[in-house]
Known about the structure:
Layout: H1 5-8, E1 14-17, H2 19-22, H3 28-42, E2 49-52, H4 100-108, E3 112-118, E4 121-122, H5 123-127, H6 138-141, E5 142-143, E6 154-157, H7 164-178, E7 182-186, H8 202-215, E8 220-223, H9 233-239, E9 242-244, H10 253-266, E10 275-277, E11 285-286, E12 294-295, H11 300-313, E13 317-319, H12 328-334, H13 337-345, E14 346-354, E15 358-365, E16 375-381, E17 387-392, E18 404-409, E19 414-420, E20 424-429, E21 434-440
Amino acid sequence: MAYSKNAVAPLPPMGWNSYDYYNTSVNEEQVRANAAYMAEHLKEFGWNYVVIDIQWSDPDAGTQLPQQYIPFSRFCVDEYSRQIPAPNRFPSSEGGKGFAPLAAYVHSLGLKFGIHIMRGIPRFCAAEHRPTRCGITADRIANPFSISRWNGDMYGVDASKQGAQEYYDSIFELYAEWGVDYVKVDDICNTNMYPHDPYSAEKEVEMIARAIERSGRPMVLSLSPGPAIIEKAWHLEQYANMWRITDDFWDTWPLLKAMFDRCEVWQKHVGGGCWPDCDMLPLGKLCKGWGEERDCQFTPDEQRTMLTLWCIFRSPLMIGADLPRLDDVTKALLTNREVLDVQRFSSGAAQVMRDGRQCVWASRGGGCPAQGIPVNLALFNLGDEDGEVAVRLDTVPFVDSSRTYRVRDLWEHKDLFPLAGDAELSLAVPAHGSVLLRLSV
Length: 441
């Protein structure tokens, strides 16, 4: 990218995504309500992206549950085979306005606007030989042998064909006109239809990044689903701002425990406008779009563990709940400024140790002590019983064994005790729980 990736996403993005609560069926009224809540209650803590997830162009999305995606759906496109919002769900888009009015509303709140797309070109546009803006019909650039395993809407775009780059250029020119700040592109980070070639859409990543640059409007480029391919880290760092390091993440302990493996693999690839993505935060009210609303299944300790790991690793943070219905406990988790400062302003996060029972991570910075740069220390109990988590400070990066540190519990906003830099730190941590500390001199 010609423009600086670090300028586009200097900090790991924080916001809300419609998927975990609304599935495919979110509408304009609901997006506006979540944006208004974010502006009033969360923006001051760094939350600022409002992202509409999958199927926003389909007027019938959510009408055939339990089927998530409607086979052979006739979703809304313009005269150039580009998806546009379904006007029955997004009435301000009527008359060819697209998402511009909704984006303007989000911007008026001091927030940023994002959308989800599937990579490629609509299958029915290819089947009907519909035009693209450069005059090449959709079938001429579609690759019918590149499809999604789980969504039947699109064919991949063949980068070797005349008009392929121009098609993506036309899409992102439209998004720039709408005022889009963030694009989540799906079926691209891991094309799991093809396990022998899971990064088979590599050239589409390049075309999309190039199209964003040519649009003249900086947009965060987020790639899904995961798990991302670690051998392709060099390519992801060159072309994207975010990439998913896991498949869809939900609120079960086995999935959360598995994230420690994924964060360990990706810890050296965080920063400089590049943010390996642990996926959304399935907190609060969830799954109404699947037909039956439910509460987050994580225990309170597991919720804190998820946020502690995401923050010290510096993952992007995307809330999956229906924001206007956040309870006070969940809201407090999401507005702990001391914890969020670790995600926003620390660096060098690394796993110090991990076994079957406990794990320790450390990073540097993120606080405002009177002198020196603080060390952040996260202690995790991975076991099924309460117990002690212990670490010798002289094994922790950034700790000076000759100093004495003040220790602060960031979740509890409580100063604990002084601790020598060559001492052993041992704390009681509940099962599946965590403690996040700041050590400062």
